[in-house]
Hints:
Helix content is 20%, strand content 33%. By secondary structure, the chain is α+β, with helices and mostly antiparallel strands. It folds into three domains: 1-39 and 159-267 and 403-450, Nuclear Transport Factor 2, Chain: A; 42-50 and 67-157, Nuclear Transport Factor 2, Chain: A (Roll); 279-392, Glucose Permease (Domain IIA) (Distorted Sandwich), CATH 2.70.70. Strands 12, 15, 16, 17, 18, 19, 20, 21, 22 and 23 form a ten-stranded antiparallel sheet that branches. It has a six-stranded antiparallel sheet with strand order 1-7-8-9-10-11, with helices on both faces. 27% of the residues are buried.
Amino acid sequence: MHPARKRPLFLMLSLTAVLTVSLTGYLIFYRPYSQASKIVPSGLRGGAGGPIVPPGTVSLAKFLWYPPPLSVHKTIILPGQTLAGLLASQGFGPSDVQNLLEHSRPVFDLSSLQAGREMRFYRDSKSRVAVIEYDINDMDFLRLQPQEGAFRAEVIKHPVEIRRCTIEGQIENILITAFSRAGESDLLALGFAEIFAWDVDFYIDPQRGDRFRLFFEKRFKCGQPAGYGRILAAEFLNQGRLFQAYRFTYPDTGKSDYFDAAGNSLRKEFLKSPLKFGRITSRFTSSRFHPVRKIYRAHYAIDYAAPVGTPVRATADGEVLTAGWEGGAGRLVKLKHKNGYQSLYLHLSGFGEGIKAGAKVEGGQVIGYVGSTGESSGPHLDYRLQQHGQYINPLGGRFKPAEPLRPEFRAAFQRQTAEYRLAQDVQALPRQVLARLASLFDLKIPLIRQ
Length: 450
């Protein structure tokens, strides 16, 4: 065949291959999976997930969905608004209110309504209230249905759709701002920082131009974002160093952890910082001017400036040796760790729940809160680390990693990481490329979305 004639054929075969990979990835990875077979407005679902229909009607909801003959009135709870006042505006008398409270109390106490939550009243064709719903939180709602002079109450979960999404971006100043520019919230940024907290201090380590990429689950309720699920895979390019994380759950124990592509655990003996975000104001040194005593002396610690009340995390698993007041250190927590390590957290405003001498703690657990107690010139955390009684620089330590991936699950882990990488690559294909392919082949396909 003449070379000039080979080019269109080669181009067509190449485009076909790309389209095949794109469609396969879309069908496998993007297609959302849901806790309910169909997303139906909460007020139109029965206790078992089906629509509310008039008594005696044969429901085909298992096979078809159709709007039931109910009208709805929605209202947002105002500050100071009472249930009695709200129900009175809907035609309920005092005895009706008391009856409703008595029957709902075993399931949920409606006596104190939360401002900002929604309540819905569904009426039938004769304007009788058939259903009342109240949003307890973002995931659960209370349903009340009149039934022979009483009310049947139950707590139901909102139908939640979970989509797998990919984002990527570049840091210009701080991580949270970069995630915001990518269209996601602080919560996702904090979850990302938590994964790499064993290797990266996200206050001092990130530099302008560093890049990140995530493959994660995002929850949707009634088509609107409603929080995040698991981060399945993540990458962070920090000053030329590439950090990777893949979530893997052991089938036999159900325990999940993050590993790099080679199966090494991201966990180390110690976190790089006891604060998720905090500005270093003083470093480990043999001579520093003390701001309170006005003299030069050794400062075998790292000081982090942060607002009062900022959570302080244990940097490793251990046992509480001391949790109390100790002179110039103010409120202090001292932890004992394996291999002869001890960590100290000074000038705290308070202690975490259950933190007392003898308590066991896990790395990352909140053990206290930033304060300015003792000899302190302002809100900050004084963090110290000892090994065999000698102070060491927390920022200079080379700590051992946790146990790597168990060998018997390496094949399963490699298959899963390959799937995650393909899903990210497919979702990252430019929209215009897919649109061009679709037009060339005259196909009507939905573009892969975030």
